Amino acid sequence: MRIEAIRVRRFTYSTRTSRDSDGHAHPGPERIVTNACLTITADDGTEGHIIAPPATVSEPILDAFIRPALVGADPMRTAQLWHRLYKAQRGSGALLTDQVLAAVEMALWDMVGRAAGQPVWKLLGGYRDRILAYGSTMCGDDLEGGLATPEDYGRFAEWLVRERGYKAVKLHTWMPPIPGAPNVQMDYTACAAVREAVGPDIPLMLDPNHWYSRADSLWLGQKLEELGFLWMEECMEEASLSSYKWLSGNLPRLNILGPETMTGKYWTRAEWAAGGACDMLRTGVWDVGGIGPALKCAHIAEGFGMSCEVHGTGAGNLAVCAAIPNTTYYERGLLHPFLDYDAPPAYLRRIDDEMDAEGFVHLRDTPGLGQDIDHDYIDAHLAA
Ligand code: MG
Questions:
Q1: What is the Cα–Cα distance from 157 to 167, expressed in whole angstroms?
Q2: Residue 48 CA to ligand 1 centre (angstroms)
């Protein structure tokens, strides 16, 4: 089996999610946006697909790096092909990002699963076939009845738990450019309102502003200890390993989770684990360069007796969650009272992470990564 062709289809669809000036997602007026589907085809006709951010699979990147490395190669050798791309990163002028590696590697895994007639999560070991999800909210906003006040957070969290079946909730609180943000007192009042609304038995987590000082982070962390939160993530610049060591050492009753957006794949995660900079390790297929490196992070964490919590949604992250024993939840979102997360976008027949009334996301038995892509829709809505 040899890789014969690599193509990308850019297509349009409508969304009710908008981005603020700092890149945070909020509900907004309906608008048309562009997405991309990367497809790798083998000489026997087997295909592997991944929906990916258009910038990660641009034609210049495919031409300069991906096609020369992959065309003619055996697609089953995902580790060899990933390493080929990893070694090309240094000389790529920063074009060959970890996200590019992730997109290509996940399309390869989709192909491997289809060729084997097996779901990827089983090929990775298949530790579990379902996992509890936590409801991960959007960042705070200034929309009336949205996520504008602590009471809004409390009301929404209560709905997530009592009506939708979530067994855990994570808040993203207010970030610039929302007026008054960032502010640890505001964050605390939202967290306290959610604890009050869902009661003492629902695990809660916080992902606040990412550039608080040590003093603000400690103050907020001590408040979360009082509220019995499970973890806090990325409250400071993650490049400062020393700051996270200091914070973890000063918060005996709150788990610090990280690093999430810090570069350096599993090498950075190994430094955090060995350095005592976190209590739980963070990974995510789009953060560390794909499924293979995300699993390595989980193995590092396991060797340190730590859980590895997977960042973000989608079939690739779900496969990693199912493959490893040392994780707690699947992150499902981002959620907002004005948006229906369960309604698939036009290019999917089903969302990747359908959840039952008990809060479990079930892994699919279909061959490949488990995305249910509507290729007819994509072909009919190709972008210019
Ligand atoms: Mg986060």
A1: 10
A2: 29
Long-range contacts of 233-236 (CB under 8 A, 24+ apart): 233/205, 233/206, 233/207, 233/257, 233/258, 233/260, 233/282, 234/207, 234/208, 234/210, 234/258, 234/259, 234/260, 234/261, 235/208, 235/209, 235/210, 236/210, 236/211, 236/212
Residues, beta carbon < 5 Å, ion ligand 1: 207, 233, 260
pTM above 0.85, yes or no: yes
Average pLDDT of the segment spanning 260-278: 98
Q: Which amino acid is at 26?
A: H
Per-residue pLDDT band at 384 (split at 50, 70, 90): confident
CA of 311 to the centre of ligand 1 (A): 7
- Ligand 1 centroid vs 77 CA: distance in angstroms? 31
pLDDT tops 90 at residue 161: yes
- Percent pLDDT > 70 in the chain is 100
The CA distance from 214 to 114, in Å, is 48
Specify the DSSP element, H or E, that contains 4: strand 3-19
Distance of CA 310 from the midpoint of ligand 1 (Å): 10
Q: What is the pLDDT of residue 383?
A: 97
The answer to whether residue 180 scores a pLDDT higher than 90 is: yes
Contact between 125 and 380 under an 8 Å Cβ cutoff? The reply is no
Q: Residue 334: its pLDDT value, please?
A: 98
How far away, in angstroms, is 83 Cα from ligand 1 center?
27
How far, in Å, from the CA of 361 to the mean position of ligand 1? 20
Q: Cβ(330)–Cβ(361) under 8 Å?
A: yes
